[in-house]
Amino acid sequence: MPQMAPLGWLSLFIIFSITFILFSMMNYYSMIPKSPKSLISQKSTKSLEWKW
């Protein structure tokens, strides 16, 4: 069974590293964080709903 050339391993490492970085960036930037104003309004409505 022939062994793989060092340049083959290097190109595979570069390709997999680039795909991993791109996949991580897509996952990181796909979530849109909510603004603090919307969180404050949600907390105030929830606290009003559960008054006894």
Question: Nutshell version of this structure?
Answer:
This protein has 52 residues and is mainly α. 75% of the residues lie in helices and 0% in strands.
Secondary-structure map:
Blueprint: H1 6-30, H2 36-49
Task: Please characterize this protein's 3D structure.
It is a single chain. With 52 residues, this protein is mainly alpha-helical. It has two helices and no strands. The longest helix has 25 residues, at 6-30. The radius of gyration is 24 Å and the shape is rod-shaped. The mean pLDDT is 76.
Which outline best applies? rod-shaped
Question: Span from first to last CA?
Answer: 76 Å
Number of helices: 2
C-alpha Rg, in Å?
24 Å
Biggest sheet features: none
Total E-strand runs? 0
Helices and strands, in order, run as HH
Keywords: CF(0), Hydrogen ion transport, Ion transport, Membrane, Mitochondrion, Transmembrane, Transmembrane helix, Transport
Membrane topology: Single-pass membrane protein
Subcellular location: Mitochondrion membrane
Organism: Rhagoletis zephyria
Characteristics of this structure?
52 residues, mainly alpha, 0% strand, rod-shaped, transmembrane, ATP synthase complex subunit 8, proton transmembrane transporter activity
